Amino acid sequence: MFNGGAPGLGGCPVTKALLLAVGGASLALRIRATGPLSRSLGFSSAGELIFGAALLYQCRANERAVGPAAAASGAALGGLGGAALAAAARALLSALFRRGAGGGGGGAAAKAAAATAAALGPYPLVFSLLVPLVLDVPATTSIVLAGPASDAASTAAAASSSPSSSSPSSSRGLRITDKHFLYFEAAQLLFLGGLGRTWLPALAGVAAGAAVRFDAAGLASLRFPRPAAAAAARMLGPLLGWAPIKECVVLPSAANAAAAAAARRGGGGGYGLGVARRAPPPPPPPAAGGAGAAAGTAVAAEPSATSVSQLVSMGFSEPDARAALRRHGGDVSAALSDLLG
After folding, report:
1. Which one is predicted more confidently, 218 or 293?
2. Which domain holds residue 147?
3. Which end of the chain, N or C, is surrounded by fewer C-beta atoms within 10 Å?
4. What is the predicted pLDDT for the residue at 96?
5. pTM of the entire predicted model
């Protein structure tokens, strides 16, 4: 699926926290602990949990692109906003149906909608997180489904006889990327939960995620308060692998650059949820003249410990991180793009 760096959840405390919360709430539902929190975050069946957890796991790619601060605020705003939109839409639809049927129970309709609002499950949260994942994270893997065997043999023969024709012939067939598997997982999750029950919270989650993604009313620049972020990092750091971070690398794209600028305006502390995002410093220029120039080049070619630790915290091995940094003169963003490619 999406190449969000190395496999696993290294450098993704928000995604790890969401997986633990959804898994724990789903387990609580299985043992009949139907509290408001478990009904809001838990899936009611094992199939829903499998596909929902798979979708949340793919969201680590977006967290590694924008950083834990933006990922945490986006998850909170998208999940809560989507749940509020879904509850309001249910109340409105219920009231309209009752009015059309000639009944007068408008108050009962609103009460029923409020009672079912907690039973929306994590659909608003999951589908709000899919919006930046689909729009901002590029597909990294693709396969081409070839035609019949005879067509494949004739294509290979044509390619061997005429090198110039190999490029057009190799593009024949149906191209499938990892994003198509993401769409399949989302559709399967909707059908497993019952399309009549899941379409509204999913649509509300998409609307809330789009509002955050396109910075409606300045939502993208909102961050958790610094005391709350510091307290969360102290309490959850050992469980989530949440270490203090002074810098956060952003993948090179216009959308993520805008998110980084918004995060810099919002400020933050030295923890994942309140990190002040800034680009890594450029390598020092080589000294002018003779041996001094050679020494300056050697210093610039050797990556700093901070740059290496940034890439290691994202799940890459230290030798690979050092090699990529040396290839790109200490540029962390370029080295990250090289490792992701």
Report:
1. 218
2. 142-177
3. C
4. 85
5. 0.64
User: Could you tell me the pLDDT band of residue 1, with boundaries at 50, 70 and 90?
Assistant: low
79 closest CA partner among 184, 219, 235, 217:
219
Do 325 and 203 reside in the same domain of the chain? no
Tokens encoding 4: 């969000």
Paired strand residues for 174? 145
Query: How far is Cα 60 from Cα 46, in angstroms, rounded to an integer?
Result: 22
Same-domain status, 31 and 81: yes
Residue 256 placed within a domain: no
| Residue 2 counted as domain residue | no
Nearest residue to 56 via CA among 37, 36, 79: 79
